[in-house]
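Dear all,

This email documents one entry for the complex benchmark we are building for the journal club exercise. For each entry we list the sequence lines for every component of the assembly. Then comes the predicted three-dimensional structure of the complex as a token string, followed by one or two observations. Please use this as the template for your own entries, and keep the labels exactly as they appear.
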Amino acid sequence: MTNQAVAEKLVDGPPEAGHDSERNRSTMSRYNFLEAEAKWQAAWSARNCFASTVDPTRPKYYVLEMFPYPSGRIHMGHVRNYTMGDVVARYKRAKGFNVLHPMGWDAFGLPAENAARDQKIHPASWTYDNIANMRAELKRMGLALDWSKELATCHPGYYEHQQRIFLDFFQAGLAYRKEAFVNWDPIDQTVLANEQVIDGRGWRSGAPVEKRKLSQWFLKITDYAEDLLQALGGLDRWPEKVRLMQENWIGKSTGAHVRFKLVGRDDRIEVFTTRPDTLFGASFIAVSPDHAIAEEAAKADPRAAAFIAECRAAGTSEAAVEAQEKRGHKLAIEAEHPLMPGKTLPVYIANFVLIEYGTGAIFGCPAHDQRDLDFARKYDLTVTPVVLPHGEDAQTFAVADVAYTDDGTIYNSGFLDGLDSESAKKKAGAKLKEQGDGAPTTIFRLRDWLVSRQRYWGCPIPIIHCEACGPVAVPAKDLPVRLPDDVTFEKPGNPLDHHPSWKHVACPTCGKAARRETDTFDTFVDSSWYFARFCSPRDEQPVDRAAVDYWLPVDQYIGGVEHAILHLLYSRFFARAMKKVGHLSLDEPFAGLFTQGMVCHETYRDPATGDWLLPEQVERRGTQMVRADTGGAIETGRSEKMSKSKKNVVAPDVIIDGYGADTARWFVLSDSPPERDMEWTAAGVEGAWRFAQRLWRLCFLWLEAHPGIVAATLPDTMSDAATALRRASHKAIAGVSDDIEKFRFNRAVARIYEFANALGEVAEGDLADPAGLFARREALTTLAQLIGPMMPHLAEEMWASLGHRTLLAETAWPEADPVLIIDDQATVAIQVNGKLRATIQLPRDCDRQVAETRALAEEAVIRAMDGKAPKKVVVVPNRIVNVVV
RNA sequence: GCGGGCGUGGCGGAACUGGUAUACGCACACGACUUAAAAUCGUGAGCCGUUAGGCAUACGGGUUCGACUCCCGUCGCCCGCACCA
């Protein structure tokens, strides 16, 4: 069945829902979500409900979901993400906050160029068409977004300011050009930042990356390494997991640099170590195959060159690395031990030393490092223990195949003897510094951020290269540097570089012929500051200080955990760098972060062909899953993240056409906790749809049976029945509010079900007196308000049916009456020796003695006590009485 | 290997700060309405047992009047990082 056919079939109900004859016979019509949702979306739009302006007299709340890449269609992950954000936005607005909730497009990137190449569509028109389509899909979700602040990073009105910010960074020394080994992605034909290499492969293409030496632009994120690390401690509304991942990525290590003199030479080898306390146990020096010393050796020694080539060929990817044997090539160089006069150490090129960490060279201390030990055993090097574990005897302690890597007492180590590891580290560091052979140091794993990409569809780097003047900033009056439209994508490599004229310009400084930078920015640059641009998206400056000072930080940011390092770390850096050059006043852009789980679905496969099948190609016959077309058996696989490759996808627009936006929103919020993965099922959607219909029916039937509800006012006296209903309403308010505050949307959904169930139990003829009508009115009003953030269209429909002329979207959140959320009776569990024997009703906060007496009088309690006298009675007021015998 | 998370009915999950385990939903069964079905409404249900009761929150211990919750150990699953010196 095509999507269109499904949509037509589902226009007014779920599959195989009601027949027309039945609907005609019914006294009430079914809730028509298609009509209602369009109506209320138009009403919100006409009233401009969700537009936000700076207003320092009101408390602000900035809710942001990670903006989407305009691939063309929204997927269920978007639906889940944006629904959660929308619940928060609508709730906070109702709670009186001035809410900023914008939407935009992360619009640069390689897929547009691939589309250009494959379908002969210009990246710009491909992108803008996709945006138009996705915007329409998002609008149908009924999101409380301020569309007047929409932005797209591919628009010159956005990237112009990015170029300004970059030039500010350049001037402040935060951006620089450097020749370095870079990660080259042979498929995407561009370089990648360290963070974008996963298991030795490009994050997007999946191709094994190659090392190339190129001159590229970097941003000085390492200037902020310490601060980015320290400030994690203050991000108390971030998931612990994300903070840990960033901490590991930044990778701070304290230790020392040690510079070893080389026998008969003037230069030295510098190593980094976290264990200067083990220096006396050194038995060799090892350098990376990419180290300068290794390269030098390769020129003179073909065997060294061969070894290096072998190491590079082995690659650095995947589990193969783990199994890889420690191997080395001995050089004709000896190093002098700085703390042991006369002692020299052999120098090796070793396959396990990484050029990108520390200095690309180490000293080997086999007794106290497993890798060094493996290496030493292979090449028959000395193993001298210098750290004695607590409780071991110096005479008998020996290292065989397992290195001792913990702390202990230092021995065999000259002036360090007798010290504990910590003190020895300090003393060794101080001694090295005194001798000029090294110094205590702290290093970071974090590297500077490589932002050059050899691509067309990105923000041009606003630099002109001049033979005489070097790299020169494009003057402000010439910004933006626009992308040329007339480019071709047939040739591999960078289309901007291939363009016949674009790069040829005069040097702004000396006027001589010069060349434009043809690299564009990594698209993570675009997304590193969009949250700030949203505060004043049309301003002539990158940001309007008054606006960002009012709106930032983002109070609640919501997105996928896959951005835990890349995007979130870059954005934290950008905030600091933008502060340094005067655009912002704060360091941390996101005060609160929530990472939502993925949307999963079962997978289906045809065992005959091995092809994956779409959920709509499959149907259930009894307990068997079969192909809808042929009836052939299929294999049902485990539930996995929805993905095009496994075809376990359900398109949001089909669901919205068939069941409405409210149903889709309700379903993604129900059942699974938001931080966990959720399972998309047809039955679940239908359950949500049925509930929406049930709410509408409940409201309609009550109003039909009791027209007095609409005008009901608070009467002088309350009946018990009315008070009971009022309690249910106020408990629901208190519970749902608390759940939304704590991001427990699935619990809020469950509470609303319970509340609706309670209303459903009210008999038709009951509560027809003034008190009852008032309680009924309050209940329906409460129901509409509580579902408001989740099913906003149905909520408006109910709200209007209760006689309101205002929009629920502009109505304050209800307050729970504290008197009504506490019962005057408590159900108390009675235990004997911790086992439940009875439950009894007691007046709330009754005397302990009363509780005890009542408990001991219970028949089941007496039976369980078996004639024994109570040794002790534990009374927890309003909860439990435990009789210990 | 290092770091983190998780383990509760047939399924998704709830249970606040240690106080009635299994809320709520899905699926299921039965009943009502119907010529019939769908939709809707109602009822039931952790397991064993006729009842009394017993046993159950991955497994084994511990602390406590009382443990899904805290502590120790074991097993399993998931995620991140990884030759990081």
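Observations: The first strand of chain A starts at residue 60 and ends at 65. The two ends of chain A are 69 Å apart (CA to CA).
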